[in-house]
Amino acid sequence: MIGADMKRITTAAAATAAATALALSVAAPVAAATGPVFWSFPDGFSYHHDNPAMGCHTVADFGEEPTERFTNATDSLVYVNAAPKCLAASPVPVSPGASTNLPVMSYYVTR
After folding, report:
1. Distance, CA of 78 to CA of 81 (rounded, Å)
2. 71 close to 40: Cβ distance less than 8 angstroms
3. What is the pLDDT of residue 23?
4. In this structure, are strands 55-58 and 92-94 parallel, antiparallel, or unpaired?
5. pLDDT at residue number 28
6. Predicted pLDDT of residue 30
7. Is the dihedral of CA 62, 78, 89, 30 positive or negative?
8. Residue 67 has what DSSP assignment?
9. pLDDT of residue 111
């Protein structure tokens, strides 16, 4: 009888630990901007990224053509960069709701 009780306690403890781990993983989301960013290239192709996470995002790599238009429709300040991987020395801020015709190869979301 003691073995069955111990098994129930162990099972209950495991279930509680699993539920706690799940709750903690859901409770700590990654910071992200709300809304999309849009960009288009001279060849006519356009793309968007919904709710981009904080950090750097590359849209064109070395040797590829940069964008011809970039629009920040998020609720966050975004810095556009003339180099991939946000490596340019002088990123340019694009406020929420604003656009730029600067050549963009990467962008950084502040939150």
Report:
1. 10
2. no
3. 47
4. unpaired
5. 38
6. 63
7. negative
8. P
9. 85
Please, are residues 77 and 95 in contact by the beta-carbon 8 Å criterion?
A: yes
Tell how far CA 91 is from the center of its chain: 18
Q: What is the pTM of this model?
A: 0.73
CA distances, 20 to each of 6, 9, 11, 26 (Å): 21, 16, 14, 10
3-state secondary structure 5-59: HHHHHHHHHHHHHHHHHHHHHHHCCCCECCCEEEEECCCCCEEEEECCECEEEEC
**Beta-carbon neighbour count of residue 67 at 10 Å?**
25
Q: Residue 71 has what pLDDT?
A: 98
What is the per-residue pLDDT for 16?
A: 52
Q: Is there a contact between 74 and 35 (Cβ–Cβ < 8 Å)?
A: yes
Low-confidence ranges of the chain (pLDDT < 50): 13-14, 22-28
DSSP-derived 3-state class of residue 65: coil
